[in-house]
Structures are given as structure tokens and as C-alpha cells.
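Q: How would the C-alpha cells look for this protein?
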Amino acid sequence: MLALVTYPYRDRETLAVHLAGEEVELADARFAELCAGGYVDVPAEKPAEPTEPAAEQEVAPRPVSAPVEMTVAELRAVIESKGGFAPRKATKAELQAMLAAL
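A: Here is the predicted structure in C-alpha cell form.
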């Protein structure tokens, strides 16, 4: 049985060290024993991968015609998309002035 390690442990039977996040193959009885101790759990099902990779869609920035309605994060994104630098501590008014200068 395949099990996901939730807490690192050293297996007393094989003396192998298993770290959290690792998947291990265990017998049903051994799985029940380690699961009761909180060391392993049933792994989550992996989502099926699409056969064809989806085309990445680029999100176009909002038009710059009305910078007053934009949030600080949106202003930073537009400034950086135009090749400018937007400091993290800049206020909304400062970011609007930077955008107007670009």
C-alpha cells in the first residue's frame, strides 16, 4: 500500500529514515500501525494531467486613461510592465505621478 509520510520517522524494520512528504510502500498491517501513530496517511489523489498543454493567456493591464480608479497594486503592475520601477513604500499619489511620467 502506498502511504504519505506526515511525520519523519526511522522504520524499525528496515532502519530507513523517511522524511515528511515522502511516499513509501507499506504492508497493510504496517500501514495501520504507522497510521495509528500519526506517522503516515493515505496520499491525496494526484490530479490528472491534461494531454495537451493549455495555451498561456496573458492578462492585459487595464487602460491607463483613468489611473485614479486603479489600486496601488494595479499601479505598480502597470509601471513595471512599462519598464519602470515602483518602490514598495511609494504612496498611491507617488505611483500615479510615476505612471504619468512614463
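The chain has a mean pLDDT of 80.

The longest strand covers residues 2-5.

Upvote if useful.
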